[in-house]
């Protein structure tokens, strides 16, 4: 799906919506409006938002769908929240069991070495 232009192709400034029309009766309304926040999202953020809705907010399911780790998707959600102009929520208290599983999943996928996994698991134990 093509998005509307967001920035002036000449100077790069934000573009405003200045005219709207009804395709049925031809009524036209003119004024100055900024596009909605969702219209201004990058294609990556739009894809993430769609995955969020499809997964009904389940980040683990989103990670499976997007072929990424739980923590990568959480970071992307924080970036999406910031792109919409909101403050990201403070991180919840760490669930050690879930963190351990995530480290083991990363090891299983070959994202980290055995030594790195051992160090990460040791650091969780010390917290």
Question: How would you portray this structure in words?
Answer:
The chain has 127 residues and is mainly α. The protein folds into 3 domains: 1-40, no CATH class; 41-91; 93-127. It has 5 helices and 2 strands. The protein has helices at residues 43-54, 59-66, 70-83, 96-108, 114-126, and strands at 17-21, 28-33. The protein has a two-stranded antiparallel sheet. The protein is elongated and about 65 Å long. The N and C termini lie far apart (47 Å). The relative contact order is 0.08. The model has no long low-confidence stretch (mean pLDDT 87).
**Helix coverage percent:** 40-55%
Q: Enumerate the strands of the largest sheet in spatial order, edge to edge or round the barrel.
A: 1-2
**How many structural domains are formed by the residues?**
3
Radius of gyration: 21 Å
Backbone shape: elongated
Low-confidence stretches: none
Question: Key features?
Answer:
single chain; 127 residues; mainly alpha; 3 domains; two-stranded antiparallel ribbon; 9% strand
Characterize this entry briefly:
This protein has 127 residues and is mostly helical. It has helices at residues 43-54, 59-66, 70-83, 96-108, 114-126; strands at 17-21, 28-33.
Q: What is the topological layout?
A:
Layout: E1 17-21, E2 28-33, H1 43-54, H2 59-66, H3 70-83, H4 96-108, H5 114-126
Antiparallel strand pairs: 1-2
Helix pairs in contact: 1-2, 2-3, 4-5
């Amino acid at each position: 799906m093509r998005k509307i232009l967001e920035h002036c192709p000449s100077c790069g400034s934000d573009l405003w919506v200045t005219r709207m029309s009804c395709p049925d009766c031809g009524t036209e309304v003119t004024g100055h409006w900024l596009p909605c926040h969702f219209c201004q999202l990058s294609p990556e953020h739009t894809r993430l938002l769609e995955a969020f809705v499809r997964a009904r907010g389940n980040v683990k399911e989103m990670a499976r769908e997007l072929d990424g780790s739980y923590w990568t998707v959480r970071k992307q959600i924080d970036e999406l929240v910031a792109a919409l102009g909101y403050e990201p929520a403070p991180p919840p208290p760490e669930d050690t069991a879930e963190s351990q599983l995530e480290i083991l999943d990363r090891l299983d996928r070959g994202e980290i070495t055995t030594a790195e996994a051992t160090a990460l698991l040791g650091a969780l134990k010390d917290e």
